[in-house]
Amino acid sequence: YLAKPIPKFYYDRIKVAGSLETEVDNFWNNTLPHYFTQDKLYGIEQEQRPLQGVVKQRANFTIRYVRNGDWKKVVLLEDKKRGHETQPSNWSDALEQLTNYLKLVRAEQGGNETLYGAVTIGTYVRFYHLTPGEQTMQDYPSPVTGKAYELKSDEENVHEILNELVSKTSS
């Protein structure tokens, strides 16, 4: 994905000191459509930014898949700005937020499918899944399960995981 000029541009913007969460959102907004395409019956929804001080009610990105005429939410992403990648509390807070979103989605959709999620802080991303009947997210099984992948230095792994998520959610 970083071989493409637009995702690379936004990746570089995240790396700028003082960059905001918006830069992380812009990266995913311009990268996810290369994987979750309309031709494969995916739609990508970006949360509208609430006013400062208003509690967020949704994940930053929701990926829906059309199955038998029904739009199912299959992957949610939660983003945070750069500069807090090494603070475990930021990862756990973002994961808790994502878990709560996914539980709501599962309740809305009947709860019989595995849902997938990712937390991105700056240029680092971790992938998770929530299986039916479970209340806690599990690390997504990958070459280095539980790793916070750096979007550039671990690009091959992130690319592979995104392709796997397309394959798993479209069947």
Key attributes of the depicted protein:
171 residues, single chain, alpha+beta, 34% helix
Describe the structure.
With 171 residues, the chain is of the alpha+beta class. It has four helices and seven strands; from the N terminus they run H-H-E-E-E-H-E-E-E-E-H. It has helices spanning 5-14, 21-31, 88-109, 155-169, and strands at 42-46, 61-67, 70-80, 115-121, 124-130, 138-139, 149-150. Strands 1, 2, 3, 4, 5, 6 and 7 form a seven-stranded mixed sheet that branches. Strand 5 (124-130) and strand 6 (138-139) form a beta hairpin. Mean pLDDT is 84; it is low at 49-57.
Assembly of the depicted chains: single chain
**Low-pLDDT regions:** 49-57
Order of helices and strands: HHEEEHEEEEH
Q: Ends: how far apart?
A: 24 Å
Helix content: 25-40%
The radius of gyration is 15 Å
Major sheet attributes: 7 strands, mixed
Mean pLDDT: 84
Count of extended strands: 7
Q: What's the SSE blueprint?
A:
Layout lengths: L4 H10 L6 H11 L10 E5 L14 E7 L2 E11 L7 H22 L5 E7 L2 E7 L7 E2 L9 E2 L4 H15 L2
Helix pairs in contact: 1-2
Q: Can I get a quick summary?
A:
The chain has 171 residues and is an alpha+beta fold. It is built from four helices and seven strands. β2 and β3 form a beta hairpin.
